[in-house]
């Protein structure tokens, strides 16, 4: 990442050699930026979005009792091509920090919320993770590079199918998508180091708590369909005791139930 280099201040009064080195480094960086812009016309907007999320986290985190957002989460955000996950006619809005419609009355979550929910799980490279509510597959794509295996469930079949194809085309080969009701979790893929639910439930589904490993954590919006919901952090201690903590108000589409 360039940030560290850009932020470093160069003291005055050093010899011409230092200035020459700085000039060469600046030229190399400018060349690299131009090359990456040519390869990916969205790179600049994605970087700007990532920086704005980093700033937003710095402002919000003290309230949520957390330190800065994990650098690897910000890096994952910066590497994930959100424009591939939105409908073609909304591509110009792909790097705005807002949710967008993806059809079937569903939405791709706001990037800040995706980053926050990823960060709250404190992902480790060895983790096995469950996501309920694949939607576009964007949250899965941000999380997948940070963990070993990600299983994700989507209840709307056409969304599940297109997310499966999209994630495969983009090379996310540690992600498995299943079509079904995520309320019941995915026993065969678990137990899970963490679970993220990206649709609002009236209560924390007991099957998901059961499929959480001791020491694991779940992030889930809890509340009614038409009011803001509480984003809840569920933690299962090593001795199996479960505690919950309300973090902030959010607005998610409702968790649907099959056959109800
Ligand atoms: N994570 C998604 C956000 C999707 S919005 C993204 O990054 O794009 C929530 C999704 O949850 C919707 O696609 C909705 O169809 C799905 N959903 C709702 N109830 C569900 C259930 N019981 N099981 C699995 N998916 C569900």
Structure description:
With about 260 residues, the protein is an alpha/beta fold. It is about 35% helix and about 20% strand. The protein has helices spanning about 5, 15-40, 45-65, 70-80, 110-120, 140-145, 155-170, 205-210; strands spanning about 100-105, 105-110, 130, 150-155, 175-180, 190-195, 210-220, 230-235, 240-250. Strands 5-4-3-6-7-8-9 form a 7-stranded mixed sheet. Strand 4, helix 7 and strand 5 (about 175-180) form a beta-alpha-beta unit. The longest helix is centred in the first third of the chain and has 24 residues, at about 15-40. The chain is globular and about 50 Å long. The relative contact order is 0.10.
Rg estimate, integer Å: 20 Å
The ligands bound in this entry are:
S-adenosyl-L-homocysteine
Element-by-element helix/strand order: HHHHEEHEHEHEEHEEE
Name the average pLDDT. 87
Instruction: Give the structural class.
Output: alpha/beta
If helices are DSSP runs of H or I spanning 4 or more residues, what is the number of helices? 8
Broad shape: globular
Tell me the total number of β-strands: 9
Short description:
The chain is an alpha/beta fold and 260 residues long. It has helices at 3-7, 16-39, 43-64, 71-79, 111-120, 138-143, 157-169, 206-210, and strands at residues 100-103, 106-108, 128-132, 149-154, 175-179, 192-197, 212-222, 229-236, 242-250.
Descriptive labels:
single chain, 260 residues, alpha/beta, seven-stranded mixed β-sheet, two-stranded antiparallel ribbon, 9 strands, 36% helix, binds S-adenosyl-L-homocysteine
């Amino acid at each position: 990442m360039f940030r560290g280099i850009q932020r470093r201040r160069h003291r005055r009064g050093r010899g011409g050699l230092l200035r020459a080195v700085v000039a060469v480094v600046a030229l190399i960086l400018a060349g690299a930026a131009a090359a990456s812009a040519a390869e990916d016309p969205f790179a600049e907007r994605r970087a700007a979005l990532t920086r704005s999320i980093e700033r937003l986290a710095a402002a919000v985190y003290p309230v949520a009792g957390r330190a800065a957002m994990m650098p690897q989460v910000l890096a994952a955000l910066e590497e994930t091509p959100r424009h591939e996950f939105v409908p073609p006619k909304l591509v110009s809005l792909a790097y705005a920090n807002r949710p967008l419609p993806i059809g079937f009355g569903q939405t791709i979550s706001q990037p800040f919320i995706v980053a926050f929910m990823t960060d709250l799980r404190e992902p480790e490279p060895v983790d096995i993770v469950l996501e309920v509510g694949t939607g576009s597959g964007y949250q899965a794509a941000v999380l997948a590079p940070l963990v070993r295996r990600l299983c994700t469930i989507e209840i709307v079949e056409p969304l599940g199918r297109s997310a499966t194809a999209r994630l495969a085309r983009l090379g996310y080969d540690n992600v498995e998508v299943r079509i079904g009701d995520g309320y019941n979790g995915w026993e065969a893929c678990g137990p899970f180091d963490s679970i993220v639910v990206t649709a609002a439930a009236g209560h924390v589904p007991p099957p998901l708590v059961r499929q959480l490993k001791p020491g694991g954590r779940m992030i889930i919006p809890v509340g009614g369909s038409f009011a803001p919901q509480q984003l809840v952090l569920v933690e299962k201690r090593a001795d199996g005791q479960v505690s919950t903590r309300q973090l902030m108000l959010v607005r998610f589409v409702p968790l649907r139930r099959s056959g109800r």
